[in-house]
Amino acid sequence: QVQLVESGGGLVQPGGSLRLSCTASGAIFTIYEMRWYRQAPGKQRDVVAVITSGGSTNYADSVKGRFTISRDNAKNTMYLQMNSLKPEDTAVYYCYADLVTTTRGRYNVWGQGTQVTVSS
Questions:
Q1: Dihedral (C-alpha) 24, 66, 17, 46: value to the nearest 10 degrees?
Q2: pLDDT tens digit sequence for 2-46
Q3: How does the average pLDDT of the chain come out, rounded?
Q4: From CA 104, how far away is CA 120, in angstroms rounded?
Q5: Per-residue confidence at 1, pLDDT binned at 50, 70, 90?
Q6: Are 114 and 11 a contacting pair, CB within 8 Å?
Q7: Residue 11 carries which DSSP code?
Q8: Nearest-CA neighbor of 100 among 22, 49, 33, 6?
Q9: Confidence band (pLDDT; 50, 70, 90) for 104?
């Protein structure tokens, strides 16, 4: 069974930085697109950043210039470097992967989420 495990969340002051990681494990053949989403209390889950297997990236307007998505295909790991954090960035951050396994073929997987709180 394939799992995505996030880490790196926590409490940070406005203007600070955090780096999130998301590692996929299990019977993985290949990983296509990976994404970071976030969900604040009472709001819908929105996409924050996207990265293709080739390294092309796209960002939500609200994080452009502050967040950087990257991935290490050899480690099946994706990262989100978050700089100049604002209180409105407070949310649970989820990773998502579109992948192919050796047992179930192609499907989508979600991580369990990691809390990011930006507050003084």
A1: -50
A2: 999 999 999 999 999 999 999 999 999 999 999 999 999 999 999
A3: 96
A4: 46
A5: confident
A6: no
A7: E
A8: 33
A9: confident
Q: What is the 3-state secondary structure (H, E, C) of 49-118?
A: EEECCCCCEEECCCCCCCEEEEEEHHHCEEEEEECCCCHHHCEEEEEEEEEEECCCEEEEEECCCEEEEE
Asked if 67 and 48 count as a contact pair (C-beta separation under 8 A), the reply is yes
Is the Cβ–Cβ distance between 87 and 118 less than 8 Å?
yes
Residue type, 20: L
Confidence of residue 81 (pLDDT cuts 50, 70, 90): very high
How is residue 49 written in tokens? Answer: 């950043």
Quickly tell me which residue has 């990976």 as its tokens. Answer: 34
Contacts of 102 by beta carbon, 8 Å cutoff, 6+ apart: 27, 28, 29
Spell out a b/e string for 31-49, using b for 16 or more CB atoms within 10 Å of the CB, else e.
bebbbbbbeeeeeeeeebb
Assigned token pair, 21: 């990681």
